[in-house]
C-alpha cells in the first residue's frame, strides 16, 4: 500500500514537473504556427496556373534552366512549382502519367522523341532553348598550348602513346563519360583508324575530375565533353577538330566518320500540359537564352555554391528585359 | 548495396583436432585445384582469344531486344491493363498515402500549415522517450544527441524525409517479412523455396529495377518505398526464420506434451522465445533501408540522398560528405536503439529490483513530458523549425573539402604507383586469363573448382550458373567483372586478416575500430567516389578501392569474432609451450578460426559484388557500366537487365561454392 502511494506520488510529481516546464516555456512562447498567414502567400494566387511539375535532369546546365523557369513561374505567374529530380528516360515516362509537365533542356534523344511524341503521343516539342549543344573531344588547356597541333584529329595518332593508361591496353585512352550521353566514339575511333581505345569513365563526375586533375598536374588526358557546361568556366577545355559534319554522315551508327552535329537544345512538354492553357506552358514555350546566360547561372550554382533559387533570382533581377520578353 | 551491418550467425563450432584421414583428403584437394589451374593455363596459352563471346558496348542480343520490347509494351499499356488498374495502382495508392501521412507528421508541411504536425522538439522528445522505454537511458542520450546533431548540420528536414521513408518502408517490409519468416522457420520446404528469391532480391542491383519501378508505381515516394521494401525485407525474413529455428526443441516438445495447439505453441512459445532475435531482424531491415537512401533519390525520393546526388553534380565533396554523415548518424542511432531494445529484458532482469519499482511512474512522467514537447512543437514556430543556420554543417563541409584537397595534392603520386602495381601485376593478367580464354574453358574450370571445393551439389549450381551466364549474352563483361571482384576480395581478405586478428586479440583496438567500420559501411559510396577519382583516376582500380571500403569492415568483424572465439585455454597452453605471438597467431588462432575465415571470404565476396554497379560509375566498365547504361538509355535497357542477372548469377555461384566449402572444412 505504502509502495503504491509512493509510485503515485512520483508519477504525479513527474507530470506536474512536466506541466510546469510546459507552462514556463509557453509563457515565453514566441510566434505560433499560422500566426503570420502572409507566409502562406502564393497559394491564393495559384488559381490560374496551378501546379507546374518540372523535371530536373542531373546536370548543372539543366539545373540552371530549371531554376530560372521555376523562379519566374513562381514569382511572376504565381504557380506552385514542383521540381522532380529524374534522369531523362524516367522524366519522359512521366509525361504520360501526368507527373511531369516539362523537360527544359533536351539533347537530341531521337529514340525518345519517336517513342513518346510520335508513337505514344504523350509529349510535344516546345521549341528550342536557344542553347547550342556542342559535343566532341576535348583536351585540357595546358596541352593545347604546349602542342597546338593536337587540336587537329590528323595528328592524334602521333600522340597516342602519351595517352596510354593502365586501362587502355597499350593504346591511347579516349575517356568517355556517362552512359546517357549521345556518343559515336567507338565507331569514330575505328573509322578514323585511330590508335585509341574508348574507356568508359561511367559518370560526368569522373570525367570532370579527370580533366580537373589533368590541368592541375599537367597530365595527358583526352576525352568526350560538351558545352554549355559550368566546368568550362573553371577549366576552359579546348575542342579537337574532327572531320566536318555533313548532313547524314552519322546516319549509320557503324560507319560514322565525322564530327558531332551542333545540337539545337530544345524543350519537351507533356501533351496534356500544352493543352491545359496554363500560363506556365506559355512561359516554357517562350523561354530562350544563350549559352553565356546559362553558363552564368550554372557558375553561380556549381562554383559559387549558391542555391538554385538564389542563383536564379540574381540572374533574373539583372536581366529583367529578357524575362519580360518570355512573359508577354 | 547489400545489408549495411550484417551480423554473422555465431555458429562456429569449437574445432576438433582434424583426424589424419581428412588431412590426406585436404592435401589431395589442394593438388586437384592446382591441377585444374595448370590445365587452364596450358589451354589458355594454346587457345587465347578464341570463342571469347565478346560483345561491343552498343551491341545487343535477341534476349536484350526482347527485354526492351517487354519494357516498352508495359509502358504503352499501363492505362488500359486491368492488372495495373486494379492491382499495381491500388498498391501504389496505399503506400503513397502511408508515406505522405508520415511525411506530414514529421517532415513536410501538412495541409494549410507551413510546417509538419510535429516539429523538431517533438521528434527529438519522442526519439529520446522511445529509446529510453525500449532500451536504456544511455542509448536515449545517444539518440537525442544524434538527432539534435542532424539539426545542427542544417539538414533537419532532409533527415526527417529520409526517416519518414525509412520507417514507412521498414513498416511495410515487416508486415510481410515476419509472417513469411515464421513460415520459413516452421517449414523446411518453404524455406528452401524462398531462399533463392531472397538471394535474388538482395543481389540484383537496384539500378536494374529502379526504372521499371517507375513504370509500375510512377515517380515519387511510392516507387522509392517499394524499391526499398524489396531490398530491406530479405534480412528480416531470414533472421526471423533463424530465430524460430533456434528455439530449443525440448521446449516445443514440452508445450506439445502439455496439449498446446499449433497456434498456441506458436503464439505462446515460439514467438516470445525468439523475440530477441526478431528484433535484430528489424535492425537489419532498417540498415538495409538506409543503404537505399541515395539510390532511390535517382527516382525523386526526397531526403538526404537528394542532397548527396545534387552535391555530386558540381563535385562538391564537402556538402555530399555532410549529408552522408547525417545518414551515418541516423544509422548509428537506429542501430544502437534497436540493439538495446533486443537486449533490454535481459539487462533489466540483471539490474536491481528497486529500479524496476520506479520504472512505471518514470515511464508515465516521461510520456507526459514528451506530450508537452510534441504539443509545443506543434504550436510554436521555434519548436517546429530547427533554430539556427546549421553552421556545424558548413564547418563539416569545409573541413571535408580541406582534407580531400590535401589528400589529392599530396598522395596522388603514391597512389598512382600503388594502382599501377596492382593493375599490372595482378588485375591485368588475371583479367586476360578470364576474358581471353574460350568461354567453355573458363566454364569447365569453374565447374571443376566447384566440384573440388564445394562438392557435387555446388557443382550442379555452378553448371546452371555458367549456362545462364552464357545465355545472358554478357559473358565477356561478366568475366571482366569477375576478375576485378576476385582481386578486390583478395585485398579485402588481406585487410580482414590483419585488422581482424588485431581486433580479436585486443578489445581496446576493437572498441576504437568499430565506429569507423560502421561508418564505412553506411556512408553512401557516392560520397567518396569524388576523392577516390582524384586519387586513382577513372580506372578499374578506383572501383576496387570503393568495394574494399564497403566490404573490408564485414570481413574484419567476422574474423575478429572468430579469433575471439578461440578458447582462451588453448592460447594459454600454446603460450606456456613457448610459442611467441607470431606463432600463436599463425599456428593456433588463425587455423582454429578457419570457419570464420571462410565465412568472411563468402561475405566479403558478396559485398564486393554489390558494389559492381558503383564501380561502373568510376571507370570499372563491364557489368557495372552495362547496368548504369540500361538505367539511362532506353535501347540499352534489356542489356542492363541481362547484366544485372549476370551479377546475381555470379553472386549465387560463389555463395554456394564458398558455403559448401565452409561446411566441408568445418565438418
Helix and strand topology:
The complex is a heterodimer of chains A (328) and B (667).
Chain A (H helix, E strand, L loop, with lengths): L1 H26 L23 E6 L3 H16 L4 E6 L2 H10 L4 E5 L3 H10 L3 E17 L1 H6 L9 H4 L12 E5 L8 H7 L4 E5 L3 H14 L4 E6 L3 H4 L3 E2 L23 E8 H5 L3 H8 L4 H12 L5 H11 L1 H8 L1
Parallel strand pairs in A: 1-2, 5-6, 5-7
Antiparallel strand pairs in A: 3-9, 4-7, 4-8, 4-9
Helix pairs in contact in A: 2-12, 2-13, 12-13
Chain B lengths: L19 H28 L14 H16 L4 H25 L13 H15 L2 H16 L3 H31 L1 H16 L2 H12 L3 H26 L2 H9 L4 H30 L1 H4 L7 H10 L3 H34 L2 H27 L1 H4 L6 H46 L2 H16 L1 H17 L2 H31 L1 H16 L2 H12 L3 H25 L3 H9 L4 H12 L1 H16 L2 H5 L5 H11 L4 H30 L1
Helix pairs in contact in B: 1-18, 2-29, 3-6, 3-9, 4-5, 4-15, 5-14, 6-7, 6-9, 6-11, 6-13, 7-9, 8-9, 8-28, 9-11, 10-11, 11-14, 13-14, 14-17, 14-22, 17-20, 17-22, 18-19, 19-29, 20-21, 20-23, 20-26, 20-29, 21-23, 22-23, 23-26, 24-25, 26-29, 28-29
By secondary-structure content and strand pairing, the structural class of chain A works out as: alpha/beta
Report the biggest beta sheet of chain B as strand number plus sense, adding barrel if it closes. Answer: none
Q: What's the pLDDT, averaged over the residues of chain B?
A: 83
Radius of gyration of chain A: 27 Å
Q: What is the overall pLDDT average of chain A?
A: 82
Shape of chain B: globular
Task: State Rg of chain B.
Answer: 26 Å
**Number of H- or I-type helical stretches of chain B:** 29
- Could you give a short account of the major beta sheet of chain A? 7 strands, mixed
The largest chain-to-chain contact, stated as pair and per-chain residue counts, equals:
A-B, 76 and 83 residues
Low-confidence stretches of chain A: 1-5, 7-12, 22-27, 37-46
Q: Tell me the distance between the termini of chain B.
A: 32 Å
Q: What kind of oligomer do you see?
A: heterodimer
Which outline of chain A best applies?
globular
- Which spans of chain B of ≥5 residues are poorly predicted at pLDDT below 50? 1-21
Provide a count of the helices of chain A.
14
Amino acid at each position: 500500500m505504502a509502495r503504491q502511494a509512493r509510485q503515485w506520488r512520483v508519477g504525479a510529481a513527474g507530470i506536474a514537473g512536466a506541466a510546469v516546464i510546459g507552462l514556463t516555456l509557453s509563457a515565453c512562447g514566441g510566434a505560433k504556427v499560422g500566426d503570420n498567414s502572409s507566409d502562406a502567400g502564393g497559394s491564393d494566387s495559384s488559381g490560374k496556373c496551378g501546379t507546374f511539375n518540372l523535371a530536373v535532369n542531373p546536370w548543372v546546365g539543366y539545373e540552371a534552366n530549371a531554376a530560372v523557369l521555376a523562379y519566374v513561374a513562381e514569382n511572376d505567374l504565381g504557380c506552385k512549382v514542383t521540381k522532380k529530380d529524374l534522369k531523362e528516360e524516367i522524366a519522359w515516362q512521366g509525361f504520360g502519367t501526368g507527373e511531369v509537365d516539362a523537360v527544359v533542356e533536351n539533347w537530341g534523344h531521337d529514340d525518345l522523341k519517336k517513342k513518346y511524341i510520335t508513337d505514344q503521343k504523350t509529349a510535344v516539342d516546345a521549341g528550342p532553348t536557344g542553347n547550342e549543344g556542342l559535343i566532341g573531344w576535348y583536351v585540357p588547356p595546358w596541352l593545347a598550348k604546349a602542342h597546338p597541333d593536337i587540336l587537329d584529329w590528323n595528328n592524334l595518332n602521333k600522340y597516342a602513346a602519351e595517352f596510354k593508361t593502365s586501362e587502355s591496353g597499350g593504346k591511347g585512352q579516349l575517356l568517355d563519360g556517362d552512359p546517357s550521353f549521345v556518343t559515336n566514339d567507338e565507331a569514330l575511333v575505328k573509322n578514323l583508324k585511330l590508335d585509341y581505345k574508348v574507356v568508359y569513365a561511367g559518370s560526368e563526375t569522373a570525367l570532370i575530375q579527370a580533366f580537373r586533375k589533368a590541368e592541375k598536374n599537367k597530365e595527358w588526358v583526352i576525352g568526350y565533353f560538351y558545352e554549355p557546361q559550368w566546368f568550362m568556366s573553371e577549366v576552359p577545355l579546348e575542342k579537337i577538330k574532327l572531320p566536318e559534319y555533313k548532313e547524314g554522315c552519322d546516319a549509320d551508327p557503324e560507319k560514322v566518320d565525322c564530327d558531332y552535329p551542333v545540337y539545337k537544345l530544345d524543350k519537351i512538354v507533356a501533351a496534356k500540359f500544352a493543352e491545359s492553357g496554363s500560363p506556365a506552358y506559355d512561359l516554357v514555350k517562350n523561354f530562350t537564352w544563350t549559352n553565356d546566360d546559362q553558363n552564368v547561372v550554372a557558375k553561380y550554382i556549381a562554383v559559387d555554391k549558391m542555391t538554385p533559387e538564389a542563383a536564379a533570382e540574381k540572374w533574373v533581377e539583372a536581366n529583367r528585359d529578357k524575362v519580360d520578353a518570355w512573359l508577354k | 548495396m547489400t545489408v549495411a551491418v550484417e551480423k554473422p550467425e555465431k555458429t562456429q563450432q569449437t574445432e576438433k583436432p582434424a583426424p589424419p584421414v581428412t588431412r590426406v583428403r585436404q592435401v589431395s584437394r589442394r593438388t586437384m585445384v592446382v591441377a585444374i589451374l595448370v590445365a587452364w593455363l596450358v589451354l589458355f596459352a594454346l587457345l587465347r582469344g578464341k570463342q571469347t563471346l565478346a560483345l561491343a558496348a552498343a551491341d545487343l542480343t535477341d534476349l536484350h531486344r526482347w527485354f526492351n520490347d517487354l519494357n516498352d509494351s508495359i509502358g504503352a499499356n499501363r492505362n488500359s491493363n486491368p492488372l495495373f488498374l486494379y492491382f499495381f495502382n491500388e498498391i501504389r495508392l496505399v503506400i503513397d498515402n502511408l508515406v505522405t501521412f508520415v511525411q506530414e507528421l514529421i517532415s513536410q508541411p501538412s495541409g494549410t500549415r507551413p510546417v509538419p504536425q510535429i516539429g523538431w522538439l517533438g521528434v527529438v522528445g519522442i526519439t529520446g522517450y522511445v529509446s529510453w522505454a525500449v532500451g536504456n537511458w544511455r542509448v536515449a542520450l545517444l539518440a537525442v544527441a544524434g538527432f539534435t546533431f542532424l539539426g545542427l548540420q542544417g539538414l533537419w528536414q532532409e533527415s526527417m524525409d529520409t526517416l519518414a521513408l525509412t520507417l514507412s518502408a521498414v513498416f511495410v517490409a515487416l508486415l510481410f517479412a515476419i509472417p513469411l519468416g515464421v513460415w520459413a522457420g516452421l517449414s523446411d520446404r518453404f524455406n528452401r523455396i524462398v531462399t533463392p528469391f531472397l538471394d535474388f532480391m538482395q543481389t540484383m542491383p537496384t539500378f536494374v529495377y529502379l526504372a521499371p519501378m517507375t513504370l509500375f508505381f510512377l515517380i515519387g515516394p511510392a516507387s522509392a518505398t517499394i524499391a526499398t521494401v524489396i531490398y530491406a525485407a530479405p534480412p528480416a525474413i531470414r533472421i526471423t526464420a533463424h530465430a524460430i529455428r533456434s528455439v530449443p526443441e525440448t521446449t516445443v516438445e514440452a508445450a506439445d506434451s502439455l496439449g498446446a495447439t499449433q497456434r498456441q505453441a506458436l503464439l505462446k512459445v515460439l514467438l516470445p522465445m525468439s523475440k530477441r532475435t526478431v528484433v535484430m531482424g528489424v535492425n537489419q531491415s532498417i540498415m538495409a533501408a538506409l543503404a537505399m537512401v541515395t539510390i532511390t533519390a535517382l527516382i525523386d525520393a526526397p531526403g538526404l540522398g537528394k542532397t548527396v546526388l545534387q552535391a555530386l553534380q558540381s563535385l562538391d565533396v564537402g556538402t555530399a560528405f555532410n549529408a552522408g554523415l547525417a545518414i551515418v548518424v541516423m544509422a548509428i542511432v537506429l542501430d544502437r536503439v534497436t540493439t538495446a531494445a533486443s537486449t533490454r529484458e535481459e539487462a533489466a532482469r540483471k539490474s536491481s529490483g528497486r529500479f524496476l519499482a520506479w520504472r512505471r511512474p518514470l515511464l508515465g512522467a516521461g510520456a507526459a513530458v514528451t506530450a508537452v514537447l510534441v504539443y509545443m512543437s506543434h504550436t510554436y514556430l521555434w519548436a517546429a523549425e530547427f533554430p539556427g543556420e546549421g553552421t556545424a554543417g558548413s564547418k563539416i563541409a569545409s573541413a571535408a573539402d580541406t582534407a580531400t584537397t590535401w589528400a589529392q595534392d599530396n598522395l596522388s603520386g603514391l597512389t598512382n604507383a600503388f594502382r599501377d602495381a596492382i593493375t599490372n601485376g595482378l588485375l591485368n593478367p588475371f583479367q586476360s586469363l578470364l576474358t581471353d580464354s574460350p568461354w567453355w574453358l573458363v566454364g569447365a574450370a569453374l565447374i571443376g573448382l566447384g566440384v573440388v571445393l564445394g562438392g557435387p551439389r555446388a557443382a550442379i549450381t555452378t553448371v546452371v550458373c555458367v549456362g545462364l551466364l552464357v545465355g545472358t549474352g554478357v559473358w565477356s563483361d561478366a568475366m571482366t567483372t569477375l576478375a576485378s571482384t576476385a582481386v578486390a576480395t583478395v585485398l579485402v581478405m588481406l585487410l580482414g586478416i590483419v585488422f581482424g586478428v588485431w581486433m580479436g586479440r585486443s578489445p581496446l583496438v576493437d572498441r576504437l575500430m568499430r565506429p569507423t567500420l560502421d561508418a564505412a559501411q553506411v556512408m553512401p559510396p557516392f560520397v567518396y567516389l569524388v576523392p577516390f577519382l582524384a586519387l586513382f583516376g577513372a580506372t578499374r582500380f578506383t572501383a576496387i578501392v570503393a568495394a574494399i571500403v564497403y566490404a573490408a569492415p564485414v570481413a574484419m568483424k567476422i574474423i575478429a569474432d572468430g579469433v575471439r572465439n578461440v578458447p582462451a585455454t588453448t592460447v594459454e597452453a600454446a603460450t606456456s609451450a613457448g610459442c611467441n605471438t607470431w606463432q600463436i597467431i599463425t599456428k593456433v588462432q588463425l587455423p582454429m578460426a578457419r570457419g570464420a575465415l571462410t565465412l568472411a571470404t563468402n561475405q566479403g565476396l558478396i559485398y564486393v559484388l554489390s558494389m559492381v554497379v558503383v564501380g561502373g560509375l568510376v571507370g570499372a566498365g563491364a557489368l557495372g557500366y552495362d547496368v548504369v547504361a540500361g538505367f539511362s538509355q532506353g535501347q540499352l535497357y534489356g542489356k542492363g537487365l541481362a547484366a544485372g542477372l549476370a551479377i546475381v548469377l555470379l553472386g549465387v555461384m560463389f555463395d554456394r561454392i564458398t558455403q559448401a566449402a565452409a561446411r566441408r572444412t568445418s565438418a
